[in-house]
Amino acid sequence: MELFINLTINGLATGMLIFLLAAGLTLIFGLMSVLNFAHGGLFAWGSYAGVWLYLLTNSFIAGIIGAIFIGILLGFITEKWIIQPVYGNHVQQILITLGFMIVLSELLKVIWGPNQIAVTPPAYLTGSWEIGNILIIKYRAFIIVVGLLMYGLIYYMLKHTKIGLIVRAGVINKEMVQSLGINIKRIFLYVFMAGAAMAALSGMLIAPYAGVIHGNMGMEYAILAFIVVVIGGMGNITGSILAATLVGIIGSFMAYYVPELSLAVNMLIMAVVLLFRPQGLFALKG
Amino acid sequence: MNSLLSLKNVETYIDQYHILQDVSFEVPAGEVTVLLGRNGAGKTTTLRTIMGLNPPKKGEVAFKGAIMNGLPPHDIANRGIGYVPEDQGIFGALTVEENMKVAMKKESDDVMERMEWILNLFPDLKTFWKKPGGLLSGGQKQMLSIARAYVNETELLLIDEPSKGLAPIVVEKVMHSIQEMKQKTTIILVEQNFLMASQIGDYFYIIDDGRTVFNGRMQLLREDESLRRKYLGIA
Ligand SMILES: Nc1ncnc2c1ncn2[C@@H]1O[C@H](COP(=O)(O)OP(=O)(O)O)[C@@H](O)[C@H]1O
Ligand SMILES: [Mg+2]
């Protein structure tokens, strides 16, 4: 029983980190029809820049703020110079964002060296609470709380603000949104920057959780995030958090019982979803 | 020149296809100008060219005397042009209220007054205010699309085949409301239903194979059956 709960909590924490990565990806795809393979690079940059600042200042909060800042900045640059020239062309998007992803990863190694960097949580998030027989690791609980808070924030923004309304309308019909006098390019930029900030936040949060960061971490998690976007339905935030939870928990149990099949099972779920419900497991329409 | 909108020798390509080859017309303020022509003649493309959705490659599109070639669609909309596309472009998952709110630039007195006026014209929209747009009937979607295009400081409405796919009695209703809107704004109406077009329209242009080939006051077409047969294939 304790094992079951521990694996579940572990899976939830991983799920939240994947969700933060997938949230931007799914909105960017849903709204802009852009396949952004550079997303994992933004995640890795958030991780490195945040950890660097964390180790430098000894303040975890500073690390988080730094990661979000670098995410917004890189999001701005990526959207303006990498994505904008290739709107509407999926082949070019895949090539240029994959290329940019590699550039981002290599730059990390140039700046911070090729070796792994070890990271631990700050003192106040180290250790665990004991509830009965169950050990709840503080840092995992922290990740789950942050993930849920971010979901709540995105949900609120989408449902109750004008820009959220425009994003929802844009996911349905971009041309109509423009024809009603809205500069959709500016909305694209904001959404992209927000998505990049969440990816960078995810990268920062994952560092003390995984214990080490390395230059290729982006690709690893980006694959999981893509799986989540497909399972959850493109453009669907609630679908994303549900799918991310599913992928996280499956990953956690598989890693314990049959580690070599962990990624394969998630791939399999995605394939089955694509075959039978290509609009996503949690899509409302269709 | 006192026309609100004018197109001069406009040519538009979609990908490599030369769709509009020579379209010219004038839209006087306060009138309903009807674009007629067979299926595939280029009527929808003409409206999309005005909106900047399929920008013109040659020629000139001018609104209130200012040339609009190359402007993005949102700039064109914000100059006072409202678009009601052929498929109505309703945001199906959004409520009627939200559909209106996407369009509303600000909540100025003028916009609120327009909102009130248009909701009185289309009381159904008030009834279904909190319902998803996707659940409306065909006629109600048409009304929502028109209301949404009108609510800002719109001076020119582009309406693409509003009678398409509607039952005759609903067509009657939609046409009646467009007649009402005539008091408030200038309209370009694309319409296959000649009877309806001839009741509302003041002036017509016929588009054939991407060219404006004929024009005149609506009355002319009402009276001349051979013209109708020649250009529209109807009697
Ligand atoms: N996206 C497109 N790609 C290629 N051809 C198109 C496209 N859209 C319209 N066309 C062609 O342009 C012509 C004019 O279409 P359209 O403006 O929709 O005509 P209408 O509204 O008068 O029926 C048609 O021959 C149509 O096949
Ligand atoms: Mg048409």
TrEMBL record, chain A:
It comes from Peribacillus asahii. It is a multi-pass membrane protein. The chain crosses the membrane at residues 12-32, 52-74, 94-112, 139-158, 187-209, 221-247, 254-276. It is found in: Cell membrane. GO terms for biological process: amino acid transport. InterPro entries: ABC_transp_permease, BCAA_transport_permease. GO terms for molecular function: transmembrane transporter activity. This is Branched-chain amino acid ABC transporter permease. CDD domains: TM_PBP1_LivH_like. It comes from the Bacteria. Keywords: Amino-acid transport, Cell membrane, Membrane, Transmembrane, Transmembrane helix, Transport. Belongs to the binding-protein-dependent transport system permease family. LivHM subfamily. One of its GO terms (cellular component) is plasma membrane. The lineage of its organism: Bacteria, Bacillati, Bacillota, Bacilli, Bacillales. It holds the Pfam family BPD_transp_2.
Automatic annotation (TrEMBL), chain B:
CDD domains: ABC_TM1139_LivF_branched. Transmembrane segments: none annotated. GO terms for molecular function: ATP binding; ATP hydrolysis activity; branched-chain amino acid transmembrane transporter activity. Residues 5-234 form the ABC transporter domain. It holds the Pfam family ABC_tran. Keywords: Amino-acid transport, ATP-binding, Nucleotide-binding, Transport. Belongs to the ABC transporter superfamily. This is ABC transporter ATP-binding protein. The lineage of its organism: Bacteria, Bacillati, Bacillota, Bacilli, Bacillales.
